[in-house]
Amino acid sequence: MSVVSSSQHTVIINTGCANISSVKFALQRLTQNVTVSDDPKVICAADKLILPGVGSANSAMESIEKKQLASCIQSLAQPVLGVCLGMQLMVTDSQEKAHQSDLGNTPCLNLIPGQVKRMQVGDLRLPHMGWNTVEAVEQTSLFKGIPQGTYFYFVHSFAVEVYSHTLASSQYDMPFSAAIHRDNFYGVQFHPERSGDAGATLLENFLNL
Q1: Are strands 175-182 and 166-171 parallel, antiparallel or unpaired?
Q2: Is the peptide bond before 40 cis (omega within 30 degrees of 0)?
Q3: Which of 5-19, 38-52, 55-69 tops mean pLDDT?
């Protein structure tokens, strides 16, 4: 694994709804210049950005709005990588709510068209948790040097269907988007920081975009 130039500044966006220590540690193996911040000036000045997320879409968006980060994130022109819930926050809206009594879908950041829906997996358990194979639509950009059928680590109950912005797909009784992409915005449903060498390669590919 090569080390990315230290002149490049990578910022992990502190949305207030993620445990970012494992993501930071994985990035620090690849580049020395990693910052965690919720300061719009620091975020906008970064070369690359990571949008993490843990929990429900509703709670995450509330935290992002409270920190006044939504318009900042929507204005970014440099490469941004959403991870797990961070990927789901990139689309138009989500069926996931903090409470079952909440009405309507949760509006998200609308960086990439699409909707997050609860997975329909028959008798299989939710959340979908563990290692699963990923098939890339094209093996450039994020998936450069990563063979088809490589295993990545997932933890989720909601997903984006396979559609025009799908960069890679996976299967858990139903096909779903394992990665999505539009312009400078990329998202992965799996956890690259927990996915061993394959995850490290994907993060390196992102840092080298």
Answers
A1: antiparallel
A2: no
A3: 38-52
Q: Give the tokens for residue 201.
A: 């390669």
pTM over 0.85: yes
* Number of neighbouring beta carbons within 10 Å of residue 71: 10
In the three-class reduction of DSSP (H, G, I as helix; E, B as strand; rest coil), residue 192 is classed as helix
Choose, from 156, 181, 193, 204, the residue flagged as catalytic.
193
How, if at all, do strands 158-160 and 128-136 pair?
A: unpaired
Strand partners, 128: 156
Residue 17 among the catalytic residues: no
Annotated catalytic residue 128: no
Annotated catalytic residue: which of 156, 165, 181, 191?
Answer: 191
Predicted pLDDT of residue 179: 98
CB 72 within 8 A of CB 36: no
9 part of the active site: no
pLDDT digits (tens, 9 = 90+) for 136-190: 998 889 999 999 999 999 999 999 999 999 999 999 999 999 999 999 999 999 9
Residue in 17, 84, 108, 181 annotated catalytic:
84
Rg (CA), the chain: 16
H helix runs in 39-156, sequence order: 40-45, 57-66, 70-74, 85-88
